Amino acid sequence: MPGRLLSEAHVRHGNTLPVTALQRSYGELNPPDRLLLGAGPSNVHPRVYKAFISPIVEHLDPYFSEVMEETAELLRCVFRTRNRITFPISGTGTAGMEAAICNVVEPGEEVIVGTNGFFGERMKDIIERCGGKPIPLTERWGNAIPKEAVQKALSSSKARTVALVHAETTTGALQPLSDIAKITRQYDALLLVDTVTSLSGCEIDIDALGIDVCFSASQKCLNCPPGMAPITANERAMEKIRNRKTRVHSLYFDLSVIEKYWIESNRVYHHTAPILLVYAMREALRIVQEEGLEARWQRHRCNMETLTEGLEALGLEINAKENPCPSINAVLVPTGISDARVKSTLNNEYGITVSVGLGALRGKVLRIGLMGMNSTQRNVLLVLKSLENALKKEGFTPKHN
Amino acid sequence: MPGRLLSEAHVRHGNTLPVTALQRSYGELNPPDRLLLGAGPSNVHPRVYKAFISPIVEHLDPYFSEVMEETAELLRCVFRTRNRITFPISGTGTAGMEAAICNVVEPGEEVIVGTNGFFGERMKDIIERCGGKPIPLTERWGNAIPKEAVQKALSSSKARTVALVHAETTTGALQPLSDIAKITRQYDALLLVDTVTSLSGCEIDIDALGIDVCFSASQKCLNCPPGMAPITANERAMEKIRNRKTRVHSLYFDLSVIEKYWIESNRVYHHTAPILLVYAMREALRIVQEEGLEARWQRHRCNMETLTEGLEALGLEINAKENPCPSINAVLVPTGISDARVKSTLNNEYGITVSVGLGALRGKVLRIGLMGMNSTQRNVLLVLKSLENALKKEGFTPKHN
Prior knowledge:
The structure is a homodimer of 401-residue chains. Chain A is α/β, with parallel strands linked by helices and 401 residues long. Helix content of chain A is 41%, strand content 14%. Chain A has two domains: 36-41 and 293-393, Alpha-Beta Complex (Aspartate Aminotransferase, domain 1); 46-290, Aspartate Aminotransferase, domain 2. Mean pLDDT of chain A is 94; it is low at 1-14. The interface between A and B is large, with 105 and 105 residues.
């Protein structure tokens, strides 16, 4: 176990490593076969793998320029937006979150942020790091943020940005956005939304709702490898960004600069796009387009309903019963049962990866995701039966037995 | 041409796009076959492609944990360091640069930075965005920064960080570091070095030289796809980082937080690592290890010498004659000849990608890279003959004819 070796080395030698640790040989990669039904990543679609190994060209090659155009067009379809500023950020979902916030928020500015899960808390952290002053709307992890709370915060502060998580991966809750979007507009504020776990799996229409900035990630309902974060911003948001008093502290995430590389026809170098990941993203979006967004949303909704019914039939309780998310479900672990052991059994004995709880829900829930191509009746049956067996192994008696 | 379609749409409709642009269908990817002998990316090694399509597992899977350990160990070998803090940042080379700078530099702090090329200028920009006060050491694009300039700047300022580019991709110059590293230590300052274009292709030994922070990129001499940026920081640097008065403005790039995910044995979620890119990086590093670093450096040096002799035999002038870099060469374009047309001929007629000039060298140079597996005698012969033909097409008469 190289992991163990290295950890011992740390303990013995403080912050540098012994030279011996640098001289061993390494075998071929041989990852286990896992069905990824956790909080993400999901499995990568075979067609996406295929796109992935296409010949690499230069980031400024005319061919790649076409691929970028097409990827941006396809992203607009999946976001349901006509926003010109629509492209993938070259980083993971957290990079997308940081890009969204660091462009919109200026130092000293108040920002309303829903903190009803790990990723809402993370947005609050990033707002603070950008010099903003978060106004947190706190809710139980599993509830949505009520529109009344948003209205009250907007009317009693100078905040002109509201940041919310659409599908809170850590709680299983889906945030209703329609009324909040209207209220936010009434106050001439921007609405910034995290759709990392929802994009292409849960119904959302950026332009129809009036969402101003939205980001997502490649590795959830899109079945792409992790490493890219789609983002879109409308003209209201870009106007605020272009009129900033201070420069965006990050060059890597500065939308006004990336725009010149990703969107303008006379592309100006900003960074070397992760070319093969862009190939992958384009193929994943093509698959979404072939299925159709409505059909895809419907499929996610149906399969998650079946899963929920099955979990309740086992006698388990759903954490976000009020606002269930079609792509992720957090189910409470029965008293006395170890989430880590159940996860471990599923991983080792069934080759199925689910996720344990994070933050306030650590040790309290197991999270089951049905994302993109993984949202099938077959997988619902499989995870229900495997989970039942794993729970029984820990002494749990299912209700229906 | 979708590109054209979309650009026209922009002109006609301002900042949103017509709905029609969102409804066409997209064919299969079919990239042209290119030999990438420009400033990067280089071609991806076939074994790296193979690693790339290995089954994806979760970012917290015990198997992936081993892969992370091994990747960090292999990175230590290629950096020649025993630094505990050694891992790939989940972004491109610019992300590595930003991570290095935003962790080390605090607002208001003076930082000495070599500005003798595009990437030195970029470091200056990022230092400013982080609130630092750059003290630029300016040199002709093609020269190295003299040690005397560094000494003078250290003795006449409060700066305790020196930032330099090892292999300046835009000029073809290699920066000597040995004396500068000693001087920097004498002043108890940190030395931060960009090895994006040099790592594994040009001799560098982080620990022996006494470099404190160093970052690179996956897509140059490592023949990985773009999207990862190896970084290493020693205990002197980490001590400065841990004692910061202000928080790092970026959560995504905060080394003290990423450390808990990448290095500590009890991994705490920070972001979803780009798992397949990590597989790719591990395989690329294994290939480096099999060849041996010295042999690899030697191969890059020999092939670049042959290329340089060949270019001079054609009657062309090398931009960085004094400090030539073994992985990249900037050759001056003869008067009256269009760099863009030569590049285009090489790309379209020979399937060879070289790079045009950037910044101060725009329109003045062509850049030929021999990186990783692309550094071969065969490619040297091929690019010399193709370039000769492409130049002749533009009316240039080679010297040796």
